[in-house]
Structures are given as C-alpha cells and as structure tokens.
C-alpha cells in the first residue's frame, strides 16, 4: 500500500507539514468560517480536477475545460434568468458540458487527432464564441439561485458536499467498476486493451464526455456562489486542474493515478498560497509558486523513473 | 476428432508486401499443431489473423464449423481463442491480478470489480502453472518470462479452446521450459487445440502432433510427426524427420546458400575484456573481432546479444570492463561517440530504428554522415544525391529513386538502405543485428554476399542472428551467448547441435537422445 | 500532400484578401497593410520558432510567458538597472535563452514530456513576471530611439518588419537548408530512429527550445517598443496563437512534416482575418471575438481536413 502509493503519500506528507506549520505560526488559518469559504470557492476546481485526472489516466489531456466552464456558467445563468426551474438550469449546464466534451471526444477518438491540439482549438473557439454571443455582459441571477435559496453556510456545506460526493463517486468508479478499470487499461496500453476486448475509442470518447459533464456541474457549483454570472470566468482553470492532477501523482503518460492523490494535490496547491501569504509572501508570487510546484512534481517523477530504469 | 479452427485460402497484404498468399490451415481439438517457418515467412501475420488483430484481405475463417465473417479481438476472445505473444500484450501499469482479471471477467461497462476474487483467481491460476509471482505486483516490475507466464495464466483461466503460443520458450530457463511443456500437454489432454510456434526442432518433436510449414507467405505443407514420447493411433498422413522438416522450411540445400569464406583475418580491431552493463544484464564479456573476420553471435532470444550490441554502440554505456578499438582503450558513451570511433550498428528493428520510413532513401542514407558530407551544416543536395545513387546501385536497392520514402520499400530493400547508411560512415567495426529477419529469400542471399564482401574488404563484422544456419554458414568464428555473457566460442563450420547445446546451456553431447547429424 | 496543404492555405489567404479588399473600408491602403504587419510580428516570431519545436515532435506552451517575463525584465534592467536600452535588449535575449534553456534541460536531460514541462514553465515565467512587477507595476517612458523599433519606418516599411523578415529568412534556411532542419524532421518522425542513426537528439531538441526562448525575448522587445510599455501580462495567449498558426500552416502536430513558408502563410491568414474583420462594417465591433472564433474553427478544420479522408479510408469495404 505504502510502496504502491508512495507518490500520493509523499505529497500528503508535504501537505501535513504545511498544515502543521500553519497550525503553529498562523492558527487563524484554521478559523472555521474563512476556511469553509475558501474551500467552497475552490470546490468547483476540485470537481474539474476529477474530470481532468480521469482524462489523464486515459492518456489524453483536455485544456478546453476553462472555456467550457464559462460556457456552462452562462448557459446555467441564462436558463435561470429566464425564470425556468432550477433543476432545468442545472441539467442544461451539465448537458452543455457533456456536449462540449462529446465534441472533443469525437474529434480525438473518432478522427484520432491529438487531444492537446483538439482541445486547444475548442478552447479558443468556445471562449471567443462566448465573447461574441455574450459581449462580456454579466448575467443577473434571480434571487432564489444564490446558495439555492439556503442560508450561506448551508449553501457552502452543500457545495463542498457535492464536491466530496463527486470525488468519492469518481474514486469508486475508477477503482471498482469495470469502466473505470477500462480507462486505466486504455491509458496503460491501448493496443493491449483492444486485444483484451475493450473498445479504446469508445472509452476515450466517454472520458471526454464525462469531463465535460463534470465541468458543467462545477460551473453550477460556482454560479450559485454569487448573484451574477461572469462570462469571463474559468480562465486558467485548466491549468489549475492539470496542476492538481500532476502534483497528485497522475502520470502524463497515462494508466496511473488515483483520485485520492488528486485530492491531496488539490489541497496542497489550494493551501500553499494562503500559507505563504500568512508568512508574509505577497500574493503576486502565487502563479510563480504554482508553476514551481508543478515542475517539482514532474521533476520528482522524472528522477524516480530514471532511477527505476524507465 | 473435431475440427476447432479452419482457415481457407487466407491472404493479407501490407502495402506492396504480400505477407500471406492464400494460406490454409486447420486445428483439431486435443492436438499440438506446430507452425514453422523462417523469419518473415508469415507466421506472425497468420497468428494475428487467427486472434483477430488483423483482418484478412481474402479467405474464410471457421471456428468449430461456424463461419466467422469478421473476426475481431473481442470476437476471438469470446470464441475461446487465446494467444501467448512473444512480447506479452499486458498492461504495465496494472497489477498481475488485474491483468488476468480484466481479460477473464465479462463485467460489461458497469460491472463491479471484485478485487478479492481477482486476487484469488490469479493466485490459483499462477499456482496451476507453477509460477511464483505475487498477484499484487505491477506488471512493469516483472521480467519477460514472468510476463509470459502471466499470459499463459490468462489463457488457462479463460478456458481457451484454441491457444496460440508464439515462441513461448524463447526466454525461459530450462526448468521453466519443462514446466511449460507439462502445462501444454495438460491443455492438450483437456482437448484444447494448441498452435505452437518455435524455432527449436527438439521442442516440436517433443510436443507436436502435426506441423505446418510456411515459406514466403505460403503453406508448403502439413505433415504428421512421430512424436518422441508415444505412438498415437490418431495420426494421419506421412510423418517426417528433422532433416525433411528443415528441407521444407528452407526449400533447398542449407549449405549451398552462403557465400564461401574469404581471406585470412588480419589485425585485431575490437577487443573487449570483462565488459559489463548492469542495467541491460550484460556481464563479463570478453571477445575479439579482427579485420576481414565475421564473428557470429549466436544464442537464444534474451541471451543478451542485442544488449551487447547496444553497449558497444553506446546506447546503454558499459559500466565495467575495457573496450579496445584499433589498439587504444576507449569509452563509448553515446551512439555519436561510437560513430566517431568507427563503429556502426545496423539494428534489429529496422522499421523503428533502422530506417525512418517517412523520409526519402537519400536522407536515410546520409543520416549518419551529416558532418562529413555536409560540412558547415549546409545541406548539399547534389553530393547527397550522388552518394545515394551510388549506394542504391552498389547494394542493388530496388526503389524508384533516391527520393522514394523508406516506407515504400520491401523489407529486404529497407535493410539495404539501413546498411547503406552505415557503410557511408566507412566503419572499422560493423555490428549487424538480425540483418535478414523478415527479408525474402532472394534479398537474403544478396545481403549475405554484401556482408562477406565487406569482410573481404577488411571490415570487422559482428553478426547477430537467431537463424542458426545463417550464423553457421556466414561466420568465421561463432560466439555463443547465454545469460548476458559469452558461454562458448567455436570455430567456423562447427556442428549445429554443439552450438545449440551451448546456447541452451547443456553440456555438449548430453541432452536429447543422439540422433543422426542435423544442421539444427 | 505537403504542397497541397500550403496551396490550399494560399488560396484561403487570397480569398481573404479579395473579400476584405472589396467589403472592407480602407483595407488595401499602405497604412493598413503596415498595420497588419506591425500587429502580427510578435505572434509571427513566436510561430517561426514554435515550428521547429513542433517539427521535432514537441510543443512549447511557455513562449507567451517567456515574452511577458522578458518584457518585464527588459523594463527592469533599463529603468531600475540604469542600463542603456541597447545593452538591456542584449541582456534580455540572454534571459530568453536561459528561459528556453530551462525547458530544454528538463525535457532532454530528465526526459520529461514537453507538454507538462512547458505547462509548468508557462505558469512559472508568467508568475515571475507578475512577482517582479508586484502584479501592477508597468515600465513606460522609453526613449524615442527605442520606440522607433515598434512605431518607426525604415525605407517606408515598419521597423519591426525588417527584424521579422530577417528572422523568417534565417529560420527558413535553418529548417530547409541545414542539417538542423533535417535532424528535427528525423526526430519528429522517429526519435528512437534518429538516436540509432547517431544524431545528437538531445542537443538538437535543446537548440530548438533555446532558440524559441531567444526569439521570444526578441518578440518581447518589439512588443514593448510597439506599446511603449512593459507589463506582466504582455503576450498572454500568444502561445496558442503561435501554435494555431503553425498547425494551420501545415506542420504536423505529430512531428516530421512542415515548412517555414507554410507557417508564414498561417500567420498571414490569421493576421489578415483579424484586421479584415475590423474593416468590414458588419463585423467591425466584434472583430476580435469573430477572428478568434474563426481561427479556432479553421484550426479544427485544418486538423480534421487531414484526418477525415483517413477515417473514410479505414471504413472502406474490403
């Protein structure tokens, strides 16, 4: 267990060290309300990171999730603003995400195009299409939508609860259902998967659809946190999600990685910035530190693989 | 005896290369049917047709009397066809138990994986074939023979009725081989049909009921075999001896196809002493190659021959021992250094390493001599073209011209391009790794002539080949490798049985009961 | 195939030119053409050096961030370091080389996937730029002799166009007429095959990345000269525009296939589209979004255009 998940446990160790240091030097960090607010604000990213992790286990990548997130947010906002019932708003956002994912999946699995360029193209197309359609106008949401009509704390618990549920459900699917193992198999060796009777292209397609749908759900989780929808939302989201997965030990080369690791990587990245702020590092170092953490994680993998004789 | 599998007039082409030209083949329940043929005769293509990995262009496939219009891997799996590949098709990132489970269980998409059961099944199957492998180990951490045993466990667990074994013993130890034989005979007794591919005739005579020989994509014939253990009342058709079998495979007298040895070898070019490379398993190799000499490197697959070549070419640099080239001690840290010292390596996998298929022949031929023919890094198309045209002429490459992409050529002509690239470097030492694998008979003898001519011109040649007659026919001396080191060195023209015995690790003269003199 | 791609692209470019020449206001004027050139130089420079990286089977997502970091450091060296701008510019090229060298080191020495390495440096370099400027600082009031690079004309042609033409010519020679180009192509087709042929694979890949860094620094200088200000967000999103131009220009994302002239056509097609849309009354107000949208769709089409015939070929009845 420890040996097989060495990578995940070492990141967990770093996370615990950071948290322990915070406990000693800045116990305010653990004050319940700001902590809950921070977690709630980050929860949608965790849901997207789950999707990205699954895509990466299947040896693909999706950098269009940020743009798709914005599209889904606007779809959700427009449906809600049209005074249609809430479940319909949620469903339409998830459906929009799934359709966007299906587009990526069709191009990648159907035409065997490399996912990095396909999702690059859809990233640009969706973002610009949205800018054209929405002209940067914010959408005012009806009163009942923020925190789904719950008091703020209740809404925050609900959003965090959904994120945890998605994580646990995805972890269970990836670990215990045949389809989850098929994703691992395809990511590990698509040809061997084909010989074992798995249909790799179907799996790849499904993985993109799933990621799209999760992005749609994440968009809803984000929309309900504020009274307006910002059509420029979701920039850099793909990077943060990929970073969480990479730091959490999901291999870029496919086949390896688990959602426990993604959670740990996500938490580490989420608390490193506030942690550094507490010890006096200015927030404008944020992105440089994120980049450094990603590079450290890949370099660690590279050195480990080299030691194990690749 | 019922017919499990029937192939009728199967053809399959890859581009211009016709790999199978109307092959018919049948397999009965409870028999071991050996499939024989030289490298490139079409065996692997035939196997891939049977396992559904390739769709035949023409011809019919029947399984248990039922016509299968389109055999896919999934369909083959369902019909109980299993294949143990030489290079196991396993998932390196998954555990042994999962590798077995994923192929045995039919969970659909949303079925639940029962890990405990997977582990138990895997443990049981591995125990049945006597493999000492931990079910929770990741496959990437296993050795090649261990991975093969996992494959066999899969087939066993799938209750496969048709099992294809592609050189299953190539990398196994003696003990593992014996265990495998008993597994094979056990399957046979259960009524499983086994297609058994091996280059080792003793194995075929120990195991097989019938043998089909392929040559250049065609079936030369199917014969019964008088198995060495017992007589079998079910046997039909004429039986044959080892010599007749070899005749069928080669199609002509073995000895006559090799060019005669040349001049007396001269000064020592390469001398390695106690050479080792721990990461690739090469250890304690001591060997000399002289000008004008062809030293054959024989041994089983996995004996460390390609690994030794990779060490000498700087792909996996040595970490112990000495290399002396032309009288001075050197180190070889990268292929570039090797090239600069006058060492050339024509690799085994020519499609991946030897020729860049998408690039023109001319580009391929000059790739190792950029510095020399393009001084100052500027390309000189005229010089390049004339060099390529000269090489095409001298080596008899059949191509539309220097601009034809490497991938448009047949295997033998690709090999000549790969060879031309290295001849352009004017090497002192030429290492050839399986130079005639997958090459048709005509091109093969041309390549043999070229190799002999190069040696006569003073080059030192190290020839790696799994084709024992080729090693015996071409070499002035034969070094046999086993377990990463040189097990024995024989003079040219040595007896095949002696060389094979050394490769297998038997004391010379012991082992299988003495039979009449045979070349393999 | 290669030829056909570039011919199609040339036709697209001609159609664009004719269409905007007819439908656009003041599209064909000398001033507007100079304008198109000025606006596309930075992305063009990045595309020119992205091309060899992609040709060799890699990718570099960090070039836009390198541009931002170099712009900021150039401003810092000039204003806070008190260096003459010429010296600062040369030092900036060195910084660009170091940024490219970082990518090169991680990719070749540690054999890490370029996608993830440059994703990391994408964050890191942009983050360093933000940290140096504390997120808000901007460097302005550059001397006129420097601003001339971005706004002046030499022999009637925008000053930076000369720089671009020089780099384009050098890259064309490098890719099509030297062993570097030959090696990148070989590595792109078959990295292992290139290694077995004794090519210095690591050094060639490293060179492509260092070159990308240096030219990104050069783009930072023309960018700063054009806007007269150096901020941390300089060149945001340019890596995507550059990759789009390269892929649109016929360079295979799998490596091995591609040409510098194709890349130039790709850059031109995108630049003309963006400018032309802003000259047509109907699209004037949304030119930015529309050109982005159309570029994204063009990219999908360019990719699919290569793949769809293959898809049908696979399904042809036997």
The tally of strands of chain C reads 2
What gyration radius of chain B follows from the Cα positions, in whole Å?
Answer: 24 Å
Distance between the termini of chain B: 32 Å
Helix content of chain C: over 70%
Largest interface: A-C, 50 and 48 residues
CATH architecture of chain C: Orthogonal Bundle
Mean pLDDT of chain B: 84
| Uncertain runs of chain C | none
CATH class of chain C: Mainly Alpha
| CATH-derived topology of chain C | ABC transporter involved in vitamin B12 uptake, BtuC
**Cα separation of the termini of chain C:** 25 Å
Mean pLDDT of chain C: 91
Regions of chain B with pLDDT < 50 over 5+ consecutive residues?
A: 228-237, 507-520
Percent strand of chain B: 15-25%
Strands in their spatial order, largest beta sheet of chain B: 6-7-8-3-9-10
Q: Using only CA atoms, what is the Rg of chain C? A: 20 Å
Total strand segments of chain B? 20
Describe this structure in words.
The complex is a heterotrimer of chains A (310), B (520) and C (318). Chain A is built from twelve helices and two strands. Chain A has 310 residues and is mainly α. Chain A has a single domain (7-302), classed as Orthogonal Bundle (ABC transporter involved in vitamin B12 uptake, BtuC). Chain A has a two-stranded antiparallel ribbon. Chain B has 520 residues and is of the alpha/beta class. Chain B has helices at residues 43-50, 73-78, 96-104, 115-128, 144-157, 174-189, 201-207, 242-250, 305-312, 335-340, 350-354, 361-366, 370-373, 381-395, 411-423, 441-456, 468-474, 496-504; strands at 3-14, 17-28, 32-36, 58-63, 66-67, 81-84, 162-166, 193-197, 210-215, 218-224, 268-277, 282-290, 294-298, 320-325, 328-330, 343-346, 429-433, 460-464, 477-482, 485-491. In chain B, the strands form four sheets. In chain B, strands 6-7-8-3-9-10 form a six-stranded mixed beta sheet, with helices on both faces. A six-stranded mixed beta sheet of chain B has the order 16-17-18-13-19-20, with helices on both faces. In chain B, strand 17 (429-433), helix 16 (441-456) and strand 18 form a beta-alpha-beta unit. Residues 228-237 and 507-520 of chain B have low confidence and may be disordered. Chain C is mainly alpha-helical and 318 residues long. Chain C has a single domain (29-280, 287-305), classed as Orthogonal Bundle (ABC transporter involved in vitamin B12 uptake, BtuC), CATH 1.10.3470. Chain C contains 13 helices and two strands; from the N terminus they run H-H-H-H-H-H-E-E-H-H-H-H-H-H-H. Chain C has helices at 2-23, 30-55, 63-79, 85-109, 114-132, 144-151, 159-177, 179-189, 191-196, 201-227, 238-248, 260-277, 287-315; strands at 153-154, 157-158. In chain C, strands 1-2 form a two-stranded antiparallel ribbon. Chain C is globular. Chains in contact: A-B, A-C, B-C. At the A-C interface, helix 4, helix 5, helix 10 and helix 12 of A face helix 5, helix 11 and helix 13 of C.
């Amino acid at each position: 267990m420890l040996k097989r998940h060495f990578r995940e446990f070492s990141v967990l160790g770093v996370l615990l060290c950071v948290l322990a240091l915070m406990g000693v030097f800045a116990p305010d960090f653990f004050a319940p309300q700001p902590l809950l607010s921070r977690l709630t604000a980050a929860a949608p990213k965790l849901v997207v990171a789950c999707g990205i992790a699954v895509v990466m286990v299947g040896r693909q990548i999706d950098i269009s999730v940020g743009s798709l997130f914005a599209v889904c947010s606007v779809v959700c906002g427009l449906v809600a603003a049209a005074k249609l019932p809430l479940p319909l708003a949620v469903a339409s956002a998830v459906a929009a995400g799934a359709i966007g994912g299906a587009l990526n999946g069709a191009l990648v699995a159907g035409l065997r195009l490399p996912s990095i360029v396909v999702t690059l193209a859809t990233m640009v197309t969706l973002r610009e299409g949205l800018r054209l359609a929405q002209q940067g106008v914010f959408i005012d949401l009806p009163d009942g939508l923020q925190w789904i009509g719950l008091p703020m704390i209740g809404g925050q618990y609900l959003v965090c609860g959904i994120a945890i549920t998605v994580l646990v459900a995805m972890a269970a699917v990836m670990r215990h259902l045949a389809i989850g193992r098929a994703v691992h198999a395809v990511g590990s060796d698509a040809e061997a998967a084909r010989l074992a009777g798995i249909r790799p292209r179907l799996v790849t397609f499904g993985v993109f659809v799933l990621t799209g749908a999760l992005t749609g759900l994440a968009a809803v989780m984000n929309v309900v946190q504020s009274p307006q929808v910002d059509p420029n939302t979701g920039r850099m989201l793909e990077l943060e999600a990929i970073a969480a997965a990479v730091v959490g030990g999901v291999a870029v080369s496919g086949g390896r990685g688990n959602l426990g690791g993604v959670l740990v990587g996500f938490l580490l990245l989420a608390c490193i910035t506030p942690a550094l702020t507490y010890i006096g590092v200015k927030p404008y170092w944020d992105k440089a530190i994120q980049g450094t953490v990603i590079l450290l994680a890949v370099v660690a993998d590279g050195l480990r693989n080299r030691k194990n004789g690749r | 005896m019922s017919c499990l599998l029937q192939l009728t007039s199967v053809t399959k082409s890859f581009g211009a290369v016709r790999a199978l030209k109307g092959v018919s083949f049948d397999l009965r329940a409870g028999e071991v049917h050996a499939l024989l043929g030289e490298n490139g005769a079409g065996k692997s293509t035939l196997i891939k047709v049977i396992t559904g990995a390739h769709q035949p262009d023409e011809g019919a496939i029947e399984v248990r009397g039922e016509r299968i219009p389109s055999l896919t891997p999934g369909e083959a799996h369902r019909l109980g066809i299993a294949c143990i590949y030489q290079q196991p098709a396993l998932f390196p990132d998954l555990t042994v138990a999962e590798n077995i489970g994923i192929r045995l269980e039919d969970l659909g998409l949303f079925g639940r994986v029962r890990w405990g059961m997977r582990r138990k099944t895997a443990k049981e199957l591995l125990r049945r074939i006597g493999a000492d492998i931990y079910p929770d180990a990741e496959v990437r951490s296993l050795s090649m023979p261990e991975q093969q045993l996992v494959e066999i466990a899969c087939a066993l667990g799938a209750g496969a009725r048709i099992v294809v074994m592609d050189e299953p013993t190539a990398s196994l130890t003696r003990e593992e081989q014996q265990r495998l034989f008993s597994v094979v005979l056990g399957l046979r007794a259960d009524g499983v049909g086994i297609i058994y591919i091996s280059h080792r005739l003793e194995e075929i005579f120990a195991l097989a009921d019938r043998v089909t020989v392929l040559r250049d994509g065609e079936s030369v014939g199917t014969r019964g075999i008088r198995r060495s253990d017992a007589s079998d009342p079910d046997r039909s058709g004429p039986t044959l001896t080892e010599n007749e079998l070899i005749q069928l495979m080669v199609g002509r007298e073995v000895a006559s196809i090799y060019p005669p040895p040349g001049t007396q070898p001269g000064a020592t070019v390469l001398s390695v002493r106690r050479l080792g490379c721990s990461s690739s398993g090469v250890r304690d190799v001591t060997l000399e190659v002289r000008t004008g000499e062809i030293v054959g490197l024989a041994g089983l697959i996995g004996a460390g021959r390609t690994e030794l070549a990779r060490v000498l070419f700087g792909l996996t640099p040595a970490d112990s021992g000495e290399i002396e080239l032309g009288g001075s001690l050197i180190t070889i840290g990268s292929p570039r250094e090797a090239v600069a010292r006058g060492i050339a390596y024509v690799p085994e996998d020519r499609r991946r390493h030897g020729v860049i298929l998408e690039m023109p022949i001319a580009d391929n031929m000059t790739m190792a001599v950029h510095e020399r023919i393009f001084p100052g890094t500027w390309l000189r198309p005229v010089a390049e073209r004339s060099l390529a045209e000269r090489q095409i002429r001298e080596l008899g490459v059949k191509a539309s011209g220097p601009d034809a992409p490497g991938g448009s050529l047949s295997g033998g002509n690709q090999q000549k391009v790969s060879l031309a690239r290295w001849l352009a470097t004017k090497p002192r030492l030429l290492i050839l790794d399986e130079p005639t694998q997958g090459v048709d008979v005509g091109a093969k003898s041309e390549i043999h002539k070229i190799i002999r001519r190069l040696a006569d011109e003073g080059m030192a040649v190290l020839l790696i080949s799994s084709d024992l007659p080729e090693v015996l026919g071409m070499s002035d001396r034969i070094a046999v490798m086993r377990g990463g080191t040189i097990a024995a060195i024989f003079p040219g023209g040595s007896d095949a049985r002696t060389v094979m015995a050394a490769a297998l690790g038997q004391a010379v003269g012991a082992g299988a009961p003495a039979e009449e003199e045979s070349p393999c | 195939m290669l030829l056909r791609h570039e011919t199609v692209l040339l036709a697209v470019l001609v159609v664009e030119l004719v269409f905007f020449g007819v439908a656009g206001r003041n599209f064909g004027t000398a001033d507007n053409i100079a304008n198109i050139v000025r606006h596309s130089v930075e992305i063009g420079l990045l595309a020119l050096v992205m091309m060899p990286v992609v040709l060799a089977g890699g990718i570099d997502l960090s070039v836009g961030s390198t541009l931002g970091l170099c712009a900021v450091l150039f401003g810092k060296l000039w204003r806070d370091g008190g260096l003459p701008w010429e010296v600062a510019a040369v030092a900036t090229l060195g910084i660009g080389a170091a940024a490219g060298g970082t990518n090169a080191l991680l990719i070749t020495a540690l054999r890490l996937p370029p996608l993830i390495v440059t994703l990391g440096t994408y964050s890191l370099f942009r983050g360093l730029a933000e940290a140096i400027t504390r997120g808000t600082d901007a460097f302005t009031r550059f001397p006129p002799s420097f601003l001339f690079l971005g706004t002046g004309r030499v022999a009637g042609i925008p000053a930076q166009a000369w720089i671009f033409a020089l780099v384009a010519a050098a890259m064309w020679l490098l890719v099509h007429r030297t062993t570097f180009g030959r090696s990148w192509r070989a590595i792109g087709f078959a990295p292992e095959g290139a290694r077995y042929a004794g090519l210095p694979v690591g050094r060639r890949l490293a060179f492509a990345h260092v070159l990308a860094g240096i030219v990104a620094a050069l783009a930072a200088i023309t960018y700063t000269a054009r806007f007269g200000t150096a901020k941390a967000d300089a060149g945001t999103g340019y890596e995507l525009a550059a990759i789009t131009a390269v892929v649109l220009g016929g360079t295979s994302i799998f490596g091995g296939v591609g040409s510098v002239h194709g890349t130039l056509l790709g850059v031109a097609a995108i630049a003309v589209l963006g400018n032309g849309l802003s000259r047509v009354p109907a699209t004037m107000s949304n030119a930015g979004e529309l050109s982005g949208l159309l570029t994204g769709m063009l990219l999908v089409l360019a990719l699919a255009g290569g793949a769809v015939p293959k898809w049908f070929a696979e399904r042809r009845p036997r």
